[in-house]
Design goal:
Layout (H helix, E strand, L loop, with lengths): L2 H11 L5 E9 L11 E6 L4 E6 L11 H18 L7 H11 L8 E7 L2 E8 L2 E6 L2 E5 L3 E10 L5 E5 L1 H4 L4 H15 L4 H16 L7 H8 L12 E9 L6
Antiparallel strand pairs: 1-10, 2-3, 3-4, 4-5, 5-8, 6-7, 6-9, 9-10
Helix pairs in contact: 2-3
Length: 250
Amino acid sequence: MTMKKIKHMKRWKKGRNLMMNMGSYYISKKGKSNPKGEDAHFISKYHQTIGLADGVSNWAKKGIDAGEYARQLMDNCLSILYSKDSEIVYPQLVLEEAYSNTEVEGSSTACIITLKNECLNVVNVGDSGFMLFRDGNMIYKSSTQQHPEEFIIGVRAGDLVVAGTDGLFDNMFESEMELVIKTLVEEEGCLEPELLAQVLADLALENSVEKEGISPYSEAASMEGYRRSGGKPDDITVVVAHIVPPKDLL
């Protein structure tokens, strides 16, 4: 590691009691025919911030690529983070400015999460979101929002944030995620965010193509008076953040 990188790392950790060790995985429902899909996300280690978006697919009826909107929105968020001379992030302000700077037609969900001191500062709109796990058990789940809502939730070392688009949450129950997390910790002896993101995405993909059985998607449809079974094929984005002391990060 060069001296320049070491100095940057020290500044990156300065004044932080906790940090997020982050990783992600993405699967497009159309595979190689459309590898970009309609989801987009970003990770900024320096700003301790993650974001994801899911383009609204109904725009395709008008010949508009909803994925392009989601990608530009997330790119704008990342550009805004690096344009500010500050490590402090205000998610709602970032999202509002990114939205104003997004020029292509379309719309999308959005979820931006930043770690500030010992709290997650979150802005969320739509059905993308996150779950918070502690000791392998889910202790918090964000709800669907029709309009951007900002909120704060406390965290501690060892907590695990699993953020995703509806391709994840429509196809995996909380209990399935808990089992995966506990199994990985037992087998690997530690938690690698990127590995966990990949395992969750792969399992969500398997569940999404099931024609029979119960899924979060089929349960939600039943509550609305529709009969559905099995999973729901969709783009799947998973971003995992492990809350750790700064000394645990290189």
